[in-house]
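JOB MANIFEST
job_type = single_chain_structure
chain_count = 1
residues = 180
[input]
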Amino acid sequence: MAEFKTKEELGKYLSSHNIPVDTWGKGSAKTLDHLLKEINGGETVLIERDGKVLRKVSVASITVTYQDKVLYEDRQEFNDRRVRSRPQLKGSVSEKFLPSEKPEAVAKRALQEELGITGDVKLVKGKEEEDVEESHSYPGLVMIMHTYRFSAELNDKQYSPNGYVEVQKDKKTYFAWKNK
């Protein structure tokens, strides 16, 4: 498990493994700063396997519904004016695990942090999956993603017909409704 103090240190390490970090922070890709924050926050671990660097993450993915509607992530707008659409997402909301968190706690935290939904939410746990694929956020870096799937049905007080907006320091994420 690799640890890094600076983005320069991280960039040098990744470049030495032929990962094109110079393409990051352009288009829909996140930056080295984003990855360093994920690593230092315990959301992401970099491991080496067969001489290759892999990004290992665990996430809770929640499909959020209200009556005949399902919520989806419409887009992310970064402060530098880049827009990222993520149509490949299987759930409405996803959140990376912090160290020692349990799946249900991560799912509830995702609903609160990303949608501002508090109070009782009926979460139904679905299947677990593990996928290995190139990271959409960090091109050239292969990701091992362990996903815990949930569904959540909102009540009238939790439902916002205009969708939801998560505001973070570097971006805004917009969520909208569509018919099932």
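[summary]
Residues 103-115 form the longest helix (13 residues).
The helical segments are 7-15, 32-40, 103-115.
exit_status = 0
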